[in-house]
Amino acid sequence: MKKNLTYCVILVMVFVALGANAVETSTNAVAQETSAHLQRRMEWFNEARFGMFIHWGLYSVPAGEWQGKPTPGTGEWIMERAQIPVSEYEKFAPQFNPVEFNAKEWVQMAKNAGMKYIVITTKHHDGFAMFRSDYSDWGIKSTPFQRDPLKELADECHKAGIKLCFYYSIMDWHSSDWPERRAWNDVATGMPDMDRYVTYMKGQLKELLTRYGPIGILWFDGEWEKPWTEERGVDLYNFVRSLQPNIIVNNRVGTARAGMSGMNKGEGVGDYGTPEQEIPANGFGPGVYWESCMTMNDTWGYRNDDHNWKSAQTLVRNLIDCASKGGNFLLNVGPTSEGVFPDASIERLKEIGDWMKINSQAIYGTTASPFKQQLSWGRCTQKNGILYLHVFDWPADGQLRVPLSNKKAKAWLMADPRHKLKCETDADGLVIELPPTAPDKIASVVVLHLSSAPDEITPK
Q1: What is the rounded distance in angstroms from the CA atom of residue 251 to the CA atom of residue 352?
Q2: Which of 25, 69, 208, 368 has its CA 20 to 30 A from that of 92?
Q3: Contact 396/405 with Cβ under 8 angstroms?
Q4: Could you tell me the residue range of the domain that residue 405 belongs to?
Q5: What's the whole-model pTM score?
Q6: Tens digits of residue pLDDT in 106-122
Q7: In the beta sheet, which residues pair with residue 293?
Q8: How far is the C-alpha of 368 from the C-alpha of 395, rounded, in Å?
């Protein structure tokens, strides 16, 4: 295994490339941006509502197993959870040869599922670069696979009209300079140096933001350890925006995130919140952007023993739930070390796509439900004066009760727009007469057009 380039070379290369002190940037995007500009920058994100997360890296080789035994925790955390000596973990690199990787197939599966953007791990906490970085040999360069998967994905995303986005871990278990050095990092040398590490990190980020065209999101992670500070987060945010002014940066660039709930505690840097493996009970109101990221099974990176797959019904309803609260849904796939999606992931993506082919207009570009109360039968999204009623529990009596006092309304099924549904208003609200059978077992969408703004009836 080749060692990292010496930091003397790294420093020269990065300082020449960046032309400045590692803690300074040429612009201050945080201070300069107006709310109107932020809204324009976030417009595509709000329109998309649905994206694919891809956790792919060297950890897919052990696939959750070390020394013949399954390890606790998620696949991409195996180095930490099993405390694998870094010199041993490095031996996985010669085994990583994803010759079955096909960027066109990956992008097409995302597009067919109705996803509008892809976020892929370019460097996870193990520090392994999934691109051909000039600042370290620890990455795809040290494997038999001498292609650049990010370049291939960038090309295919551009052709398909999919936004390509990059995940990048602030924390780095492999680096000699990350101050929270693990006891089992047996390849680290010298004393850790956080400023030198930030210089290295910015060098890699500049590669990512100058080699692959426009990037939709820089999705940071690994910000919770002590070496990272809010001040450094603000600086990194400004640095990223100086390279691509229209890029979106998540709130994990700073240190204000409140755990898995994902939203900032008070003020904090970043453009949107990142709930993980959960969906907020309620929305956050206009102007607050967020995205729930979630696995299809239990793990992010591929594990060969994780077969606890969520159903397509659960996943579609999670998407609807997020949209009904004004948020996005980022659904994960963990490819194998050969470069293929697990069969169960492919099956679920197809089922989600089948639902989206009919109902996507009730997701894309919608805003949160106008209802303050929880709807017993499902969820609601809205767009351009239209309410989309996502019915999870089809009423046995054929009457969908909506807590509205509006007397003039038109309704139809999204799956059958030619057949208008009878609407009447009584003392308990609006009643829509439905056919006896739901058109979709996952969620059937009733399109409701009102002649005036929704007038919600408060429960007695």
Answers
A1: 28
A2: 208
A3: no
A4: 378-450
A5: 0.93
A6: 999 999 999 999 999 99
A7: 276, 330
A8: 23
